[in-house]
Each structure stands twice: as C-alpha cells, then as structure tokens.
Amino acid sequence: MTTYSWAFGLAQSKLADVLPRRWAHVQGVARQARELRSIAGDQAELLETAAVLHDIGYAPDIAVTGFHPLDGAVFLGDAGASDRLVHLVAHHSYAALEADLRGLSQQLKNYDDEGGLLRDALWYCDLSTTPHGQKVDARARIAEIQDRYGPDHLVTEFITKASPELLAAVDRTQVRLDACEALS
Predict the structure, then answer these.
(1) How far apart are the C-alpha atoms of 51 and 170, rounded to whole Å?
(2) Which residues form a coiled coil (predicted)?
(3) What is the number of domains present in the chain?
C-alpha cells in the first residue's frame, strides 16, 4: 500500500460521512496536487498525501483545539505519519498567521514550516479549490471565504491578512507550472 492510499483511506474514513462537503474539498485539493506532478517531481506522492490529509483536523473525533491544521498534525503524528507530512499539514495555507490570531502560536511552533516549492504547491491546491471540490481562481476563493464567514469573523480577519502571502505562494506555483508546461 502506498502512503497516498493509506492517507486517502484515512481521510475518507474521518471525513466522508460526517463532513461530506469537506471531503469533496479534500478530494478536489488532491486532484489539484496530482496536476502538479511535473513541478513536484520525486516529491509528488508527498504533495498528494499532504493534500488529501490537509483538512483531517476538522474531523469531530480529531478536533481538540478547534484549529484544524494543529489538530490534524497532532493526530497524524500520533498515527505515525512522517515528520515532513505532519509539518506540511500543520502549516498548510499560512496556518502560522491564524495560529497567532487564535492564541495557538506556541503549540504550532512544535512544527516546522519548510517553505519552498512543496509548501507553496500545497497552498496553491487548497486556495484554488472550492468547498465543493471544483477548481477556482485563488482570488475568487479568498473572496468566497470572506463572504461565507462575514466581516466580523476571525477567519475573515485571517484570510484578509494572509492574502498577500497566500497569493504569492499561488503565483510562484503558477510560474513553476507554466515553466514546466513550456518545456513539454
């Protein structure tokens, strides 16, 4: 069994029945990751695995702090996932900023944000997938999040403050993808 197969089964068992819309999003993020194989190279399976597990911390039986990147990372670490996978999940989509806003920075500091190509690609996949799993422009996705949560919600504050960093990662990934496609 591949790491991705294990991850897919785990995410499906934790999300499909109790959070079907979240499960649809996760599957869409994983499809996006598959489309980035050309830039992920020998790290493609890790990217796809992180994509399918990035929101596992939303599962009711996993959620402890209510901050899904942290809850997912703790769960995956306890489940024996590789450190790199755990750290990617912990820091997906600029989780460090949201952790600051939630007062959870100290807990998140147990996990490293590796930065770079793979981290950017995971952020790209998450930000370019709707809650229903369809592809979307990242800027439209940010606007959808702001609209869904409303002006006074912590998530809206986070996504508004995070937008420059998130969009920079999306844009870097798009440049990498365009360069790979130009070579083929």
Answers:
(1) 15
(2) none
(3) 1
CA distances from 39 to 20, 86, 132, 137 (A): 30, 21, 25, 19
Q: What is the CA radius of gyration of the chain?
A: 15
Query: Domain limits at 60?
Result: 3-183
How do residues 52-93 score in pLDDT, each as one tens digit?
A: 999 999 999 999 999 999 999 999 999 999 999 999 999 999
Rounded to whole angstroms, the Cα distance separating 12 from 118 reads: 23
CATH number of the domain where residue 18 is located: 1.10.3210
Alpha-carbon span 111 to 114, nearest angstrom = 9
Instruction: Report yes or no on whether pTM surpasses 0.85.
Output: yes
